[in-house]
């Protein structure tokens, strides 16, 4: 599992009770330090691990718990600790041994450690859910109830059978024999009368008493519950029934059901879930549940911000010659680990490590830097690398790492995250990308064109061109963000994915928008220098009045022209559709050879009808695109005329190998056409 090869440093044991999970607990495991961390925590999660009542699966969940802890602090600034309870297992220790032990642990948390039940969330998986439910029903008073409860693939004591058993028995990791062994390990092969006793008149002490239909779940369960259920687990109906009964009794219930999930998928997501977005969705729902259950201030306990590092920390770091990382890679590249002087040198070092090492090496380097050098500039190098290679889950993990250290992201951070989802094949990539765009508001950022462009790439990659064009329309009609050349290029790339009856029309619409934007900013024809200066002053006053700048001008680049010509060739179904490309080349570069004039004339447009062009100078890349545009339409004569006219009008234009190859191919095709016509003429005569 990524970055969690060993997590013994996250655990601190309490004899005969269980163990705490929090980051770097072993660095200061004194009782006073542990108590301080418990006191500072905004939420304590008491987890009762499953294992069929016969063994303990808790240690397998440590990577998941670590992810939860980091996500809570990164996303909501919630400080948390998890206490994994230990209890005696069957068949040696039958009911109510486990219930009694968990009740004692809960009493120790609330009475000995003085943890307010309002900041405790109890959680359980598998058979641990039955123990938790029995404990809450039999042992915990109404006044001492925790604030919330999480049930992951819960076993509640119901008999095997039902629709989910029939549908998922061949797909899940447990079966009827598993349930039988669980029941024997919890209750024994026969009812044990000695285990029955009265508990304050509340109920006869029997296992699974909460299953009785006359039991109101709201009378003993917390006010909020979260369920993680798998679409392919046999216990799906069992968990769903419990969630339904809880909701009907007035409890606020949230259910996360992963269609591909088997038993314990949410506790071992790296093993059972391949879709990274599904893992992130589960994690987001968990964080939202905890945040809404435990009310906290946005900045609890005066967290130190990056700009608030102490002078002693800075002085101590400056006295160190190297960034201290204990790894074979760091030892082999000792010079690279020399202590940087500022964040920009540190950022360059991260880039170097990513070139010669691994993502883990770069992450270890950043975490070992003094906190005043851990700026978003440095972390963005790592996030951008993951995004570039389509590793969205890694990028999100490092975002959480950065936030855990109290470092706020910048606009580039969100741009990198959107890039990551632009290369994802997950069906949830659109949902995740849109969520990241919305998250910018949490940090008082307004999306810029680069963020919009990256979101549009996500839509295109996910096969939703209609969303791309809808977003283009939205920003085109707003005053916040104006589309730039990249925006239009991405929108043009979306057009060929649309249905044939509408795609050419959309290309025409985008071209008209581009044309209007450019003409709006073109200087008016003036007769004197004085009038030109007056026009410029008027433009500047208008820009100030409408809160615009020169940056709002649409600057045509090679990529936009290439995207436009390519979109025309891919969508043109009639000769009139081709005119968009002819018009664009004439408008941008004043290139309109005889064959282009003929095409315009056939469609009722004379050269005199055309407005003066903008007088741009084509690049070699544009010339190559024009040749390929003509070739794709099989207008080879048009391509040759464009080439000859461009070289004549722009003598400084020097064709490269690609242009030469394209031109040679066009000449070859022209020669073939001529030979074919000669043969046809000869055969007729």
Automatic annotation (TrEMBL):
<dbReference type="Pfam" id="PF07859">
    <property type="entry name" value="Abhydrolase_3"/>
</dbReference>
<dbReference type="Pfam" id="PF13041">
    <property type="entry name" value="PPR_2"/>
</dbReference>
<feature type="repeat" description="PPR">
    <location>
        <begin position="375"/>
        <end position="409"/>
    </location>
</feature>
<dbReference type="GO" id="GO:0016787">
    <property type="term" value="F:hydrolase activity"/>
</dbReference>
<dbReference type="InterPro" id="IPR011990">
    <property type="entry name" value="TPR-like_helical_dom_sf"/>
</dbReference>
<dbReference type="InterPro" id="IPR029058">
    <property type="entry name" value="AB_hydrolase_fold"/>
</dbReference>
<dbReference type="InterPro" id="IPR050300">
    <property type="entry name" value="GDXG_lipolytic_enzyme"/>
</dbReference>
<keyword id="KW-0378">Hydrolase</keyword>
<dbReference type="InterPro" id="IPR013094">
    <property type="entry name" value="AB_hydrolase_3"/>
</dbReference>
<feature type="domain" description="Alpha/beta hydrolase fold-3">
    <location>
        <begin position="47"/>
        <end position="265"/>
    </location>
</feature>
<dbReference type="InterPro" id="IPR002885">
    <property type="entry name" value="PPR_rpt"/>
</dbReference>
<protein>
    <recommendedName>
        <fullName>Alpha/beta hydrolase fold-3 domain-containing protein</fullName>
    </recommendedName>
</protein>
């Amino acid at each position: 599992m990524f970055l969690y090869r060993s997590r013994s440093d996250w655990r601190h044991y309490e004899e005969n009770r269980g163990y705490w999970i929090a980051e770097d607990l072993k660095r200061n495991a004194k009782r006073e330090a542990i108590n301080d961390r418990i006191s500072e925590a905004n939420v304590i999660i008491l987890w009762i691990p499953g294992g069929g009542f016969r063994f303990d699966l808790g240690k397998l969940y440590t990577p998941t718990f670590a992810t939860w802890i980091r996500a809570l602090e990164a996303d909501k600034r919630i400080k948390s600790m998890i206490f994994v309870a230990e209890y005696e297992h069957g068949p040696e220790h039958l009911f109510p041994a486990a219930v009694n032990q968990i009740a004692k642990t809960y009493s120790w948390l609330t009475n000995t450690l003085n943890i307010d039940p309002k900041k405790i969330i109890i959680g359980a998986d598998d058979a641990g859910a039955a123990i938790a439910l029995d404990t809450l029903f039999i042992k915990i008073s109404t006044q001492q109830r925790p604030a919330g409860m999480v049930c992951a693939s819960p076993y509640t004591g119901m008999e095997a059978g039902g629709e989910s058993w029939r549908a998922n028995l061949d797909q899940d990791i447990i079966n009827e024999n598993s349930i039988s062994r669980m029941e024997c390990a919890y209750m024994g092969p026969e009812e044990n009368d000695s285990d029955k006793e009265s508990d304050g008149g509340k109920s006869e002490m029997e296992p699974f008493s909460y299953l009785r239909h006359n039991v109101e779940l709201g009378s003993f369960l917390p006010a909020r519950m979260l369920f993680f259920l798998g679409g392919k687990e046999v216990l799906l109906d069992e968990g769903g029934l419990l969630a339904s009964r809880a909701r009907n009794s007035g409890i606020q219930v949230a259910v996360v059901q992963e269609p591909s999930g088997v038993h314990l998928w949410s506790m071992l997501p790296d093993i059972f879930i391949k879709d990274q977005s599904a893992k992130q969705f589960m994690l987001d729902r968990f964080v939202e549940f905890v945040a809404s259950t435990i009310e906290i201030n946005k900045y609890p306990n005066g967290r130190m911000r990056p700009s608030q590092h102490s002078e002693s920390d800075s002085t101590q770091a400056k006295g160190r010659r190297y960034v201290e990382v204990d790894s074979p890679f760091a030892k082999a590249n000792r010079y690279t680990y020399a202590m940087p002087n500022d964040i920009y040198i540190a950022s360059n070092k991260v880039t170097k490590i990513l070139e010669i090492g691994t993502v883990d090496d770069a992450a270890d380097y950043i975490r070992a830097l003094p906190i005043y050098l851990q700026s978003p500039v440095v972390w963005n190098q790592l996030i951008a690398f993951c995004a570039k290679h389509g590793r969205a889950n890694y990028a999100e993990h490092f975002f959480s790492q950065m936030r855990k250290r109290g470092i706020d992201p910048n606009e580039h951070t969100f741009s990198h995250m959107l890039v990551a989802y632009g290369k994802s094949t997950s069906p949830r990539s659109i949902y995740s990308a849109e969520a990241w765009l919305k998250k910018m508001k949490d940090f008082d950022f307004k999306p810029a064109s680069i963020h919009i462009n990256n979101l549009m790439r996500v839509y295109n990659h996910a096969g939703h061109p209609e969303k791309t064009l809808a977003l283009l329309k939205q920003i085109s009609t707003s005053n916040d963000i104006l589309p730039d050349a990249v925006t239009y290029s991405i929108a043009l790339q979306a057009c060929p994915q649309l249905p044939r009856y509408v795609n050419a029309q959309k290309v025409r619409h985008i071209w008209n928008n581009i044309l209007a934007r450019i003409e709006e900013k073109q200087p008016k024809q003036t007769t004197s220098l004085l009038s030109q200066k007056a026009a410029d002053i008027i433009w500047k006053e208008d820009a100030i009045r409408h809160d615009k700048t020169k940056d709002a001008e649409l600057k045509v680049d090679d990529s936009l022209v290439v995207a436009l010509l390519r979109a025309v060739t891919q969508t043109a179904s009639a000769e009139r559709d081709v005119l968009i490309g002819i018009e664009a080349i004439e408008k941008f570069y004043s290139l309109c050879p005889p064959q282009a004039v003929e095409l315009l004339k056939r469609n009722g447009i004379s050269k005199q009808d055309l407005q003066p062009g903008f007088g741009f100078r084509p690049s070699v890349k544009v010339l190559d695109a024009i040749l390929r545009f003509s070739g794709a339409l099989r207008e080879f004569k048009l391509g040759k005329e464009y080439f000859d006219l461009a070289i004549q009008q722009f003598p400084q234009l020097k064709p490269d190998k690609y242009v030469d190859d394209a031109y040679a191919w066009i000449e070859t095709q022209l020669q073939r056409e001529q030979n074919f016509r000669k043969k046809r003429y000869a055969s007729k005569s």
